Amino acid sequence: DLRGGWTLDVQTGETITADLTITATGTSSFLPLIITSSTYVPGTWGSQPIIQTATAGVAGININSYNIILKGLYFKCTHGTPTTGNMGICAKTQHAATVNIQSCIFDGWYHGIDNDNAINFGMPYVGIVDCEIKNCTHYGMSFGYISQLVSGCHIHNNVFGGVIITGLSSMSYAFSDCVFVNNTGSGIKGTGLAVSLCQCTIAGNGSSGSNGLGGVYLSGGTQTLTFTPNQYATVDNSLYSYAAIVFDEHGTNACQAGQFF
Question: Fewest CB within 10 angstroms: 1, 56, 122, 128, which?
Answer without folding.
Answer: 1
